[in-house]
Amino acid sequence: MIELTEALVLSRQINQSCLNKKIINVIVNQNPHKWAWFNGDPNDYPKLLLTQSFKHSKTYGGMIEIDCEQCHLVLAEGVQLSLLSSVPSDLKHQLLLEFEDHQYFVVSVRMYGGLWCYQDVFENPYYFGAKKKPSVFSTNFSFDYFKQLINESSNTLSLKAFLATEQRIPGFGNGLCQDVLWKAKLHPKTKLKDLNSIDIERLFSTLIDLLNEIVELGGRDTEKDLFGNKGRYITKMSQLGIDEGCPECGSKIIKESYMGGSIYTCPKCQTKI
């Protein structure tokens, strides 16, 4: 799942490897997917994208927006992006763009994902919400702004609900939430009203520092970059690490179902307040 860290890694790679190359072939929806979301009729995509070239890529939360001369392509959620010199015959994809140098930009939907191409206006509330809020990687995402987010939220919200729902921090989902809270020594079920000022300061600094570390390491080891390489950040609180125990104290990691997903916690490092 693309969260804001992987979106930034992929966007940078697109800017480094895909700009100013004319699109000479467009294949859309070759393998129909029930949860592949298009903007309008996907059969119109070849007309929109053919002869265009990528001019710039940027991110809004977990969304990657690629600007072309006369249209824009927004990619989000559970899409896998690949830049290939050849396309395996068994590779399933929902969008394939062939560049003039015969490299292929391939978008494959896993569980669900957005492949939205538009010319003038893209009517999507999540897109507009992500676009108007400051990026975690910008100076506008300050400690004062973070405290404002907390103050504007119900104090009965759990930390997981605050951080990973309602797009308060666009692109920050359950995956990133696990390691941020573990490193901040806070439990996902802890309520906002039970945090003190030191907890809030530690949570903010951990959030900023860890997300920047993940980007510098090319993303998490649970995700792949544009060239098929796994990220070098080793996730601590996930299914991959559950058999290893807590890296800090060695305690057995606990997996629970909570708020429609799984949470992974250390019973010693993350005692619920």
Describe the structure.
The chain has 273 residues and is an alpha+beta fold. The protein has two domains: 4-131, N-terminal domain of MutM-like DNA repair proteins, CATH 3.20.190; 134-265, Helicase, Ruva Protein, domain 3. It has seven helices and nine strands; from the N terminus they run H-E-E-H-E-E-E-E-E-H-H-H-H-H-E-E. It has helices at 4-17, 45-49, 125-132, 143-151, 159-164, 174-183, 197-216; strands spanning 23-28, 36-38, 54-60, 63-68, 72-84, 95-99, 104-118, 254-258, 261-265. The strands form two sheets. Strands 1, 2, 3, 4, 5, 6 and 7 form a seven-stranded mixed sheet that branches. A two-stranded antiparallel sheet has the order 8-9. It is globular, with a radius of gyration of 20 Å.
Briefly characterize the structure.
By secondary structure, the chain is α+β, with helices and mostly antiparallel strands.
Name the descriptors.
273 residues; N-terminal domain of MutM-like DNA repair proteins; seven-stranded mixed beta sheet; Helicase, Ruva Protein, domain 3; single chain; two-stranded antiparallel sheet; 7 helices
Annotate the secondary structure layout.
Layout: H1 4-17, E1 23-28, E2 36-38, H2 45-49, E3 54-60, E4 63-68, E5 72-84, E6 95-99, E7 104-118, H3 125-132, H4 143-151, H5 159-164, H6 174-183, H7 197-216, E8 254-258, E9 261-265
The CATH architecture category of the largest domain equals Orthogonal Bundle
Strand and helix order: HEEHEEEEEHHHHHEE
* SS content category: alpha+beta
Q: List low-confidence stretches.
A: none
The name CATH uses for the topology of the largest domain is Helicase, Ruva Protein, domain 3
Net shape: globular
Strand proportion, as a percent range, falls in 15-25%
Number of domains: 2
> What's the total helix number?
7
Helix coverage percent: 25-40%
**Terminal Cα span:** 30 Å
Q: What summary fits the major beta sheet?
A: 7 strands, mixed
Look at the structure and give the CATH class of the largest domain: Mainly Alpha
The average pLDDT score comes to: 96
Round the Cα radius of gyration to an integer and report it. 20 Å
Q: What is the β-strand count? A: 9
